[in-house]
């Protein structure tokens, strides 16, 4: 059973960089066919895809966040990370990491972390 | 404002059939498959339907999905109280703006 666990500061000051790490257990992050995603949910709102990374380092980002986002992977630790720069209160949200399975005939998120609330405030 | 459009709310009584719509465009639903996720209060989303109409193992056959053109629908038959949740559609968007996953704004289902 694959499990994902987000970790990182729950409070970030405006203009600083939000940094989160997702630790994957029960499976290798280097397994082909999977992308490793970050998704966020503003309080009381819907889901917003931030981006994802393949174990090789190939990334895709949401165009609306691309200028501020960096997703990286550390295969030796079975972890991947999110950095979001120049944060404002609008970046306050629950951040989820997730595994995205990509196949010729299907393409979906099959495992999610429990989510971590990050508040941007001075 | 979400790229995919869903009604903000839906409701039904136990045993009824309800449908939730998801409207997109040629760059997302019109050219790619649709997934549906269920989010129970206070929990992470869970995959409900993938590739327009496929149910993962463990999802009751009361849930079904369909797609036509640039729109998709989720149907829930034999509505049960435990179906009260938020439902999100998602699709890959491949446009001049970029290539990325887009979600609907979510539909809150209330079981009366």
Query: Which band does the percent of strand residues of chain B land in?
Result: over 45%
Shape of chain B: globular
Would you report the number of β strands of chain B? 9
Compute the number of helices of chain B.
0
Low-confidence spans of chain B: pLDDT under 50, at least 5 residues?
none
Order of helices and strands of chain B, N to C? EEEEEEEEE
Fraction in helix of chain B: under 10%
Keywords summarizing the entry:
heterodimer; A: mainly beta; globular; B: 112 residues; mainly beta; 6-stranded mixed β-sheet; 9 strands
Task: Write up what this structure looks like.
The complex is a heterodimer of chains A (122) and B (112). Helices cover 0% and strands 54% of the residues of chain A. Chain A is mainly β and 122 residues long. In chain A, the strands form two sheets. In chain A, strands 2, 4, 5, 6, 9, 10 and 11 form a seven-stranded mixed beta sheet that branches. In chain A, strands 1-3-8-7 form a four-stranded antiparallel beta sheet, with no helix packed on it. In chain A, strand 9 and strand 10 form a beta hairpin. The radius of gyration of chain A is 14 Å and the shape is globular. The termini of chain A are far apart. Chain B is mainly beta. In chain B, strands 1, 3, 4, 7, 8 and 9 form a six-stranded mixed beta sheet that branches. Chain B is globular. Chains A and B meet through strand 5 and strand 10 of A and strand 7 and strand 8 of B.
């Amino acid at each position: 059973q694959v499990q994902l666990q987000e970790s990182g500061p729950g409070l970030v000051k405006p203009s600083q960089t939000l940094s989160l790490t997702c630790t994957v257990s029960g499976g290798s992050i280097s397994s082909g066919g999977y992308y490793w995603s970050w998704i966020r949910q503003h309080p009381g709102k819907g889901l917003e895809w931030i981006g994802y990374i393949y174990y090789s380092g190939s990334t895709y980002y949401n165009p609306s966040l691309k200028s501020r986002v960096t997703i990286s992977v550390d295969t030796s630790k079975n972890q991947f990370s999110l950095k979001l720069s120049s944060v404002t209160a609008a970046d306050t949200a629950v951040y989820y990491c997730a595994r995205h399975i990509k196949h010729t005939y299907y393409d979906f998120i099959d495992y999610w972390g429990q989510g971590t609330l990050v508040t941007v405030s001075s | 404002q979400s790229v995919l459009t869903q009604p903000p709310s839906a409701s039904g009584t136990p045993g009824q059939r309800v449908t939730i719509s998801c409207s997109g465009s040629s760059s997302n639903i019109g050219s790619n498959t649709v997934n549906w996720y269920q989010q129970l209060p206070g929990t992470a989303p869970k995959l409900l339907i993938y590739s327009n109409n496929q149910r993962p193992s463990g999802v009751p056959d009361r849930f079904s999905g369909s797609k036509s053109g640039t729109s998709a629908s989720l149907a829930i038959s034999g509505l049960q109280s435990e179906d009260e949740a938020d439902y999100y559609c998602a699709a890959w968007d491949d446009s001049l703006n970029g290539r990325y996953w887009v979600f609907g704004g979510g539909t809150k289902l209330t079981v009366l």
